[in-house]
Design a protein that fits this description.
The complex is a heterodimer of chains A (364) and B (278). With 364 residues, chain A is an alpha/beta fold. Helices cover 37% and strands 18% of the residues of chain A. In chain A, the strands form two sheets. In chain A, strands 2-1-3-4-6-5-11 form a seven-stranded mixed β-sheet, with helices on both faces. In chain A, strands 8-10-9-12-13 form a five-stranded mixed β-sheet, with helices on both faces. Chain B has a single domain, classed as Thiamin diphosphate (ThDP)-binding fold, Pyr/PP domains (Rossmann fold, 3-Layer(aba) Sandwich), CATH 3.40.50.970. Chain B is built from eleven helices and ten strands. In chain B, helix 2 packs across helix 7 and helix 4 packs across helix 5. The termini of chain B are far apart. The chains are: A alpha/beta (364), B alpha/beta (278). At the A-B interface, helix 3, helix 4 and strand 7 of A face strand 2, helix 3, helix 5 and helix 11 of B. Strand 7 of chain A pairs parallel with strand 2 of chain B.
């Protein structure tokens, strides 16, 4: 994740120590100053995300990393980054909750906090990873999406993946696409900082580059000034949603493993997707036609990918280390086409291939 | 053209935002005037200034002026300012907060910004009350006073913001009132010229909420109270603590030198490169 962030151009990190995400802080505190970047340890997670947003407004790609309790504190400024359309990346290495919960054990219980943790109607982009390589790739994706869509992007990682050691070869980056925010090209007096464009994404001027404008957490008009006019509020909130929803095809990423002929498809993400893949292979060896849909984008929820699976599989099994935060979404888009079964585990241990195999045997 | 008209033309935003939200008689306008005059005297370009605020009556200030302006979440202005400053040290970052902003919800950010010696200027409008939400008591509401949430009297002791800033390590701390407008001009000018974490506490009146609930009279009468109770710091040094009980000590309370965060961090960068190059 650190290498991905640096490759993506991240040059500012503000964070607060928290298990199991602290390693990201530690490594960046060493590496960022070497590349003229800035690392600062703030007094809490609220301050961390505040500083990240400030740095991004000044034109520097910025990120923070935390775990569940810290992520709860960040919800306030996460909403600010959404309404003020400030690119930034937040890594949440999940732990079991509620509250201090299970600091050192794996969990996937922040899926819904990532979606709805901050108040108000808002779109959000949340990505996941199940391998070390994906941590690298998804961190770059997270920065690219945040810059492109002017929005915070959350990377939900579970403790197993975050602490995993795997070999990866970074082949001097040919083909790595890095996206930087689109800046205004018009003269300052023509610049409309929150203009409704066809893409829904206005050009972003950085502080100190001649485009003086107002940034606020209040609902604002296209010039950034607070408004209470319904004819300005409605279109603004609609645009915030539209700038994400009309780019679903680009944002939503998933991998399909042998789903073409699968009677049963597993839907999984994070470390559980690894167990699910092993279970799929073993089930196939036993003659069961099992497939896997691995979600890389958690939010916006990949309705299209799940619907594609429904065309073939009439049984879906959703293993996850929570009480059913994604299986509920799968059931929501199902509408009676298939049978959807959850496999939930919240005891601080990982879901093993055997447990998934057993669940398949139960429902097959 | 009168000097004040020139300043208005140069620094206020003319597109859409007036009339402002403040009550007639409010002291925030005086503070804004002092800030604009100080910035003009020092001669900063408008592009160089980032004006950051939190939430409340004071939080609405940046929207009216033609700088890079950032209206953040309640109490968090200093955290955003920290990010802006460290990401682009060439910018001059000035933070406007109220008493609730700075020492209630944002109290932790305030003391830590002072401790780190982040190079930003904090201007804190202290009117002893949460005005915008209807006059609830704040950490600076004096003991025994009335507010919307202390109708039977406030039983909490109040913070002294400037003294808190001094203790937390701010390198420049000044206190003024909106009555002493000329002093305010010079305090803000000194603060923005100071490298490191500088604080100007501005004692102001909220006649609409605090004044009305405590029968303190009109805005003018409350400003006369400021005049009658202010003691400059030199004179205060000669007075006994008992005599200073109900007084406001105004002037420069601290002006000292400490290493500034961004300069120290530059050394860290050099050290890290040396380590990486080994």
């Amino acid at each position: 994740m650190v290498e991905g962030a640096l490759r993506a151009g991240c040059r500012f990190f503000a964070g607060y120590p928290i298990t199991p995400a602290t390693e990201i802080s530690e490594i960046l505190s060493v590496k960022l100053p070497q590349v003229d970047g800035t690392f600062i340890q703030m007094e809490d997670e609220i301050a961390s995300l505040g500083a990240v947003i400030g740095a991004s407004l000044a034109g520097v790609k910025s990120m923070t990393a935390t775990s569940g309790p810290g992520f709860s504190l960040m919800q306030e400024n996460l909403g600010f980054a959404i309404i003020a359309e400030v690119p930034c990346v937040i890594v949440n290495v999940m732990r079991g909750g509620p509250s201090t919960g299970l600091p050192t054990f794996p969990s996937q219980s922040d899926v819904m906090q990532a979606r709805w943790g901050t108040h108000g109607d808002h779109p959000i982009i949340v990505l996941s990873a199940s391998t070390v390589r994906e941590c690298y790739d998804m961190t770059i994706k997270a920065f690219n999406f945040s810059e492109k869509f002017r929005t915070p992007v959350i990377l939900l990682i579970d403790e197993v993946v975050a602490h995993m050691r795997e070999k990866m070869v970074l082949s001097d980056e040919e083909g790595v696409e890095i996206f930087n925010r689109v800046k205004p090209t018009v003269p300052p007096e023509w610049y409309i900082p929150f203009e409704d464009t066809p893409s829904g994404i206005p050009a972003m001027a950085n502080f100190g580059e001649g485009y003086r404008y107002h940034v606020t957490g209040l609902t604002h008009d296209i010039r950034g000034f607070p408004t209470s006019r319904p004819d300005e509020i409605g279109p603004f909130i609609a645009r915030l949603h539209r700038k994400i929803s009309q780019h679903f095809s680009e944002i939503q990423m998933a991998e399909f493993f042998q789903t073409e002929d699968a009677d049963i498809t597993l839907v999984a993400y994070g470390s559980v997707a690894r167990s699910a893949r092993r279970a799929m292979i073993e089930a196939r060896e036993e003659g069961l036609k099992v497939g896997l849909l691995k979600l890389l984008t958690i939010w916006p929820f990949m309705r299209s990918a799940v619907e594609k699976v429904f065309q073939v599989s009439k049984i879906l099994v959703v293993p996850e280390m929570n009480m059913g935060q994604i299986s509920r979404e799968v059931k929501r888009v199902n509408r009676g086409v298939a049978k959807v079964f959850a496999l939930n585990k919240v005891d601080g241990t990982i879901i093993t291939p055997e447990e998934i195999m057993n669940r398949i045997a139960e429902v097959a | 053209m009168a000097e004040v008209t020139k300043l208005i033309h140069k620094y206020l935003r003319h597109d859409k935002k007036f009339p402002h939200v403040w009550c007639p008689g409010c002291g925030i306008g005086i503070m804004l005037g002092a800030l604009i005059r100080a910035i003009d005297r020092v001669g900063y370009e408008k592009d160089e200034i980032v004006l950051v605020s939190g939430i409340g009556c004071s939080g609405r200030l940046p929207v009216y002026v033609d700088f890079n302006t950032l209206h953040t979440t309640h109490g968090r202005a200093l955290t955003f300012a920290t990010g802006v400053k460290l990401a682009k040290p060439s910018l001059k970052v000035i933070v406007i907060m109220g008493d609730g902003d700075a020492v209630a919800i944002g109290g932790n950010h305030f003391i830590h910004s002072a401790r780190r010696n982040i190079d930003v200027t904090s201007i804190i409008l202290n009117n002893s009350v949460y005005g915008m939400t209807g006059g609830q008591y704040s950490p600076t509401t004096p003991y025994g006073m009335r507010s919307s949430t202390t109708v039977y009297s406030n039983i909490e002791q109040s913070f002294k913001i400037s003294e808190l800033a001094v203790t937390a390590g701010a390198v420049f701390v000044g206190r003024g009132t909106v009555y002493h407008a000329k002093l305010l001009d010079s305090l803000i000018e000194k603060a923005i010229l100071k490298e490191g974490f500088s604080v100007v506490e501005v004692i102001a009146h909220c006649h609409t909420q605090y004044g009305r609930q405590n029968r303190l009279g009109t805005a003018v009468e409350m400003m006369e109270w400021q005049r009658d109770h202010a003691v400059n710091v030199e004179k205060a040094a000669t007075m006994k603590s008992g005599e200073l009980q109900d007084k406001i000590v105004i002037g420069v309370l601290v002006d000292k030198e400490l290493p500034v965060y961004q300069d120290e961090y530059e050394k860290i960068r050099e050290r890290s490169r040396a380590v990486a190059g080994r």
